[in-house]
Specification:
466 residues; paralog of FGE (formylglycine-generating enzyme); 2 domains; four-stranded antiparallel beta sheet; four-stranded mixed beta sheet; 24% helix; 11% strand
């Protein structure tokens, strides 16, 4: 016992002497936090507002009675996610799948790279795309341990789980020209990514977009809080096909000629800055998970920076609060009650008259930065495309949700709230208090989305005393 007391005293002395705090409670040292506004986003300062219908419920749905609620501060995309932005996601997934298939085949045939591999240029053989952890002896002790105990073993579902791909600066680029494929193994992998010629359109080699799948993990917090400990905290979502459903331009409108939009809208550069459509709620969630991972992967390479919190879909309350732009009891994001300004010009892209889609200057969607933004600098919070929210739809939810950051996170309810109205909707759906819904696995030619990120801290509130 005496030895234990003596040891404790010595340990206490060592700990005390090793610090420069003179024995005072000064708090654990941490990196200084510098708030960083995400690119393309604007800060929506939190505060209280009257949520619900500002005017008479003309449709008599009675699902949005007025209720005073408060939301926290958050960043929100200034525009809907565009085709170009969503294509960045698609291209990253395609690149990852191709590199994974190349690495797996290189591993199976025993290729580890050619002597003539050129840094940052097109590879000389499939071996140049082998897994980056081929040389175990050159690994750090940590990487070697992880490789030997986890990555080289894999999982029951994926024997290559955890293996690192060669990508980024200094690594071989993927070869796009079929005539320059380095060997027959490379040809085999690339051929597996395309549809057979018998199914190709006009003889053009067409990517099999069903191969473009993304998988991510998330926490079901409602289930997590009922558990003890962290075991089983994460839910593995099944792989999600992430390519937009371009056929919605045809299936949404019977007896209508919209084939040009089906053929060109998502991939052609003419539509880069237009909002992406044909994306389901599940795909929008996958995009949010990828955007978070993509940013944190970059930050991980930098020293002295904390990782960001998640990008996500806005809750229904956050969306309405942001759409109002700080204007109390407004009908539209610009105030209202009219859809035209004092010069007689329409303030949004919608269907103003029966059968007349073009009276507002647009037949289909318009570029994401069109019309005037609201007072939070958010574009097209009314019209253009309706937008997915995180919340599940219940006609009576306003009666039971909390008054602080209200949300209905019911995973079993597949009806998800969409807001804002679209290019094919009448003015009723443009009102900031109007609610609508669509099923999570459905995609439409008039539904897109934008993302949000929680603001770290509590200082930024719209009602904070000066």
């Amino acid at each position: 016992m005496k030895k234990l007391v003596a040891f404790s005293a010595i340990l206490s002395l060592l700990v005390s002497c090793s610090k420069g705090d003179r024995g005072e409670l000064v708090g654990a040292k941490s990196r200084k936090w510098h708030p960083e506004k995400p690119y393309g986003m604007t800060l929506v300062p939190g505060g209280a507002f009257v949520m619900g219908k500002s005017d008479d419920d003309l449709a008599n749905i009675q699902d949005a009675p007025t209720k005073t609620v408060t939301v926290r501060s958050f960043y929100m995309d200034e525009t809907e996610i565009t085709n170009a932005e969503y294509r960045q996601f698609v291209n990253w997934v395609k690149d990852s799948i191709v590199r994974t298939r190349l690495a797996v085949l290189a591993d199976e045939v025993g290729e580890t790279g050619s002597d003539g591999a050129r840094s940052g240029k097109e590879g000389g053989s499939i071996g140049d795309y082998a897994f980056a952890d081929q040389n175990v002896e050159e690994m750090s002790p940590y990487d070697k341990y992880m490789y030997e105990n986890y990555y080289s073993v894999g999982t029951d579902e994926d024997p290559y789980a955890g293996r690192r791909l060669k990508r980024g600066k200094g690594e071989p680029k993927l070869i796009q020209d079929p005539q320059k494929y380095p060997d027959e193994y490379y040809v085999e992998v690339m051929d597996s990514m395309y549809l057979p010629e018998s199914e190709s359109y006009n003889g053009l080699k067409t990517m099999d977009v069903s191969k473009l799948q993304f998988r991510y993990r998330e926490v079901d917090w409602n289930k997590a809080v009922k558990k003890k400990g962290r075991k089983g905290l994460y839910d593995d979502n099944p792989p999600i096909e992430i390519y937009p459903d371009t056929t919605v331009w045809i299936t949404d409108f019977a007896y209508s000629y919209n084939e040009p939009m089906h053929n060109d809208y998502f991939w052609h550069s003419a539509y880069d800055e237009y909002p992406v459509v044909g994306v389901s709620w599940n795909q929008a969630k996958a995009f949010c998970a990828w955007r978070t991972m993509y940013k944190n992967s970059y930050i991980k390479k930098k020293k002295g920076r904390d990782q960001i919190n998640s990008f996500r879909l806005p809750t229904e309350a956050e969306w309405e609060y942001a759409a109002r732009g700080g204007i109390e009891s407004a009908t539209y994001p610009w105030g209202g009650p009219y859809a035209k300004n004092d010069r007689g010009c329409f303030m949004a892209n919608f269907k103003p008259n029966r059968g007349d889609y073009a009276a507002d200057g647009a037949l289909y969607t318009v570029e994401a930065k069109s019309y005037e933004p609201n007072d939070y600098n958010l574009y097209n919070m009314a019209g253009n495309v309706s937008e997915w929210t995180q919340s599940a739809y219940s006609p009576s939810s306003y009666e039971f949700v909390s008054t602080m950051n209200p949300n209905v996170p019911d995973r079993k309810n597949q009806r998800k709230v969409v807001r804002g109205g679209s290019w094919k909707d009448v003015g009723y759906f443009l009102a900031v208090g109007t609610r609508d819904y669509e099923y999570a696995d459905s995609s439409r030619s008039y539904i897109g989305f934008r993302t949000v990120q929680d603001y770290m801290g509590t200082a930024a509130t719209g009602t904070r005393p000066k």
